[in-house]
Amino acid sequence: MKEIIVDTFLDSIKLLPFLFLAFLIIELIEHKLSEKTTKAIAKSNKFGPLVGSLLGGFPQCGFSVVATNLYITRIISLGTLISIYLSTSDEMLPILISHNADIKIIFSILGIKIIVGMLCGFIIDLIYRRKESAHFDLCDDDHCDCEDSILKSSFIHTLKTLSFIMVVLLVLNSIMYYLPEETISNMFLKNTTFAPILSSLIGLIPSCASSVIITEFYLNDVITFGTCIAGLLTNSGLSILVLFKTNKNNKENLLILTLVYLIGIIAGIIINLLAFL
pLDDT tens for residues 79-127? Predict the structure, then answer.
């Protein structure tokens, strides 16, 4: 149990600078920037999925957390958020490198995640337009008196979100620790249509452990390339926890979760079919 608590603390504390930066940016935009500057940021959203998918490809999960908070306050679009979620690498890249994986495999996985994220982001932005009335004010919700100090209110937002993440992550890490890896491996049903469905579901688990498991299974030939992609597309680190903690619109949260999940499944099935043919 001590190991689980330590891992939970380390996984959570890694997000501290990213969370604080995200809330600080939001505070500055909401209270310090001019209306002209805010409109300029909003107009740049049409290129959001392109930039978001490229930035998401870097080996970290903190950027997806920053993006989550920026979306909730409507600084970035839904398509941009989805593109970042789909392209986020989390622990996948370090695992591949540590196993001396073929450079072609590494770039193939990164390239597919970035391209899928970019295309889906642009399509979602074309279909789904958010109304201006959907704007959400973090300060009104948390009653943090941000007029007194932006740094203080950003720190309060960060601590509240981080404490929620630590509690949920402790539960998830406990489940992952006590569930035998062999049990998870037997559930995948390699070379079947169901494998990407399960892999995408595991990828949704907001923990670095899920991306590690999926990558390790692929490297050990437990799952196919398409099944691996399915799980890695849906894995966006701890950002899903931040989304459900901060965004009070649970219908919207479920929509985002469903979109990411379905995209992961469809992409995985298509890649498996292409490999089979």
Answer: 999 999 999 876 677 778 767 889 999 999 999 999 999 999 999 999 8
What span, in angstroms and rounded, lies between the C-alpha atoms of 174 and 264?
Answer: 26
Cα–Cα distances in angstroms (integers) from residue 106 to residues 14, 78, 89, 222, in the given order: 24, 28, 11, 18
Q: Kindly tell me the sign of the dihedral angle through the C-alpha atoms of 33, 68, 3, 229.
A: negative
- 53: its two tokens: 């998918």
Question: pTM for the whole thing?
Answer: 0.73
Angle between helix 250-276 and helix 225-234 axes, rounded to 10 deg: 170
Q: Smallest Cα–Cα separation from 85: which of 208, 267, 273, 261?
A: 261
Q: What percent of the chain has pLDDT over 90?
A: 26
Q: Report which of 209, 210, 212, 193 is spatially closest to residue 201, judged by C-alpha positions.
A: 210
Predicted confidence (pLDDT) per residue in 32-80, tens digit: 554 544 455 455 567 889 988 888 877 655 678 888 888 888 888 999 9
